[in-house]
Amino acid sequence: MNRDDAYLILNYLPDIGPLRINALINFFGTPEDVLSADKEQLKHVQGIGERIASTIINWHEKCDVEQEKEIARRAGVKIITREHSCYPPLLKQIHDPPVCLYIRGNMEVLHKTPSSVAMVGSRQVTNYGSKMAEILGSAAAMAGWPVVSGLARGIDTLVHEAVTRMNGCAIAVLGGGLGKIYPQENVQLARKITENGAVISEFPMQFAPMKRTFPMRNRIISGMTKGTIVLEAGHRSGSLITADQALEQNRQVFAVPGRADSPQSRGCNQLIKDGAILVENFDDVLENLSFLPGFGPDTNPRTPKKQTGKDSENSDSDYEMELTDAEAELLEYIGPEEISIDNLVAELGQPVANVFQTLFALEMKKLVRQLPGKRVVRNE
What is the rounded distance in angstroms from the CA atom of residue 109 to the CA atom of residue 169? Predict the structure, then answer.
């Protein structure tokens, strides 16, 4: 038996979990040695009693390792362990990292997770929450930052949709196996995510999600990122669990403020009272994470580069703005006087989504700013 198969088997077995697996490997040395131990040896490990020792000894009754790998292969899913080079680096640092990750999509995006943010929130969403999910998800995508969320109804779905509309990198973490996408209405969204990002899970392919698995999923969402943004959350929202786990994992927590009289804002407002960083736009996130190791401006692939030498001396700006054709065309229509976005769409004759995407890019470059009432003006 090879090591990857041994990890997969231990991960597959019920009622063990990452912490017990850690204890077993620390005691025996390797996952292969764990599966080779007898019952009495296994029972010497703390947390391993008669029932779990019997499960490990008789693992072949619970897990058909070749069948599990074949199901994954047919679904286009890769299975990696904590020893794989693509395993998210920050996730290794938490006290109970997943033993295995099932991944559909681009595995290479997992290398980018140290420069990613999590965005989570309630399943019950207000118009305000929807707007902030669109603004923050799109801005993160345009800034080139991977966005991690949970594919749940509500804020998670809206964030994933915003990121994918901008052709950004989204990473969805599931509370069940990749063969049991939940909720079912997000199957198409999951497929869209895999075009530039990935859908991942620590659970076997056919494992059905249940109440206890969502907090387990949440620790992965917060654990693989440097910061977690809570966009909208009621007093008992599950997204507050993610925020708590982020704090336990020594990650930064951000919260979007809401109306004082809105039940859907109580969780976020309380987080801010407790010390979370208030977020009004994605710049608030960039400014705070830029002080963390590895999060300076050079880590952002779409940050304008400073000019040097003679070019810098002849420029009115400290930064060289590299505009796409679409950005340059749109900028010509925007002057120092306010103009409505609807009028821009009409004049350009382009799809609304394209205009919004270009506007977000210009906003990130500090060339324009949006105003209330769907209006925009150029920064002079």
Answer: 8
- Which amino acid, one-letter code, is at 189? L
Over the Cα atoms of the chain, what is R_g? 23
Whether the per-residue pLDDT at 294 is higher than 70: the answer is no
What letter would DSSP give residue 211? Answer: T
Determine the Cα–Cα distance for residues 297 and 151; give it in Å rounded to an integer.
29
- Distance in angstroms (rounded) separating the CA atoms of residues 233 and 156: 12
pLDDT at position 156: 97
pLDDT tens column, 78-125 = 999 999 999 999 999 999 999 999 999 999 999 989 889 999 999 999
Which tens digits make up the pLDDT trace of 317-358? 333 457 888 888 888 888 778 888 878 888 888 777 677 778
Distance in angstroms (rounded) separating the CA atoms of residues 221 and 206: 21
Domains recognised in the chain with CATH numbers: 1-63 (1.10.150.20), 101-297 (3.40.50.450), 309-378 (1.10.10.10)
Alpha carbon distance 67, 74 (integer Å): 11
DSSP 257-321: ---TT-GGGHHHHHHHHTTPEE-SSHHHHHHHHTTSTT-SGGG-TTSPPBP-HHHHHT-SSSB--
374 backbone dihedrals φ, ψ, rounded to 5°: 55, 50
Cα 208 from Cα 224, distance rounded (Å): 23
* Structure tokens belonging to residue 293: 């190791």
In angstroms, rounded to a whole number, what is the distance separating the alpha carbons of residues 291 and 297?
10
Nearest by Cα to 116 from 181, 197, 17, 234: 197
Beta-ladder partners of 172: 149, 199
